[in-house]
Amino acid sequence: MSFLYFLDILLDFTHVFLVLFILFGWLYPRFRKVHFVVLLLTGFSWLIFSKGDTFGHCILTDWHWHILRELGETNLPETYTQYLFERMTGMPVPKATALTITRSLWLLSLILSSVLVFRKYICERRLKVTD
Fold it and tell me: How many domains does the chain have?
């Protein structure tokens, strides 16, 4: 039973770290390429693992919910955003709101990351051409 608690904590940390990296990874020039790849992989996984109209469904959430159900948790929300928001504030958030927040922030991060990665690529190419 204690191994399941360990997995619960591990998945919480992993998920929160991934969310923070997706939101703010573009801020650090050293990590921008990795950040861009993580964003693309996240979007791709949403396409592959989403159920019906829930683009934005995370495979980590499925794994985490499986562990939590094994631990006896019931009435889990459909998204990790709902779960995290409710744990932090005590207030439930509707699924549509959670998905809108998740998708919008991911898209904003993807746009910022794309601009920064490609801007650096173009600048480096210009420097090589002028050399």
Answer: 1
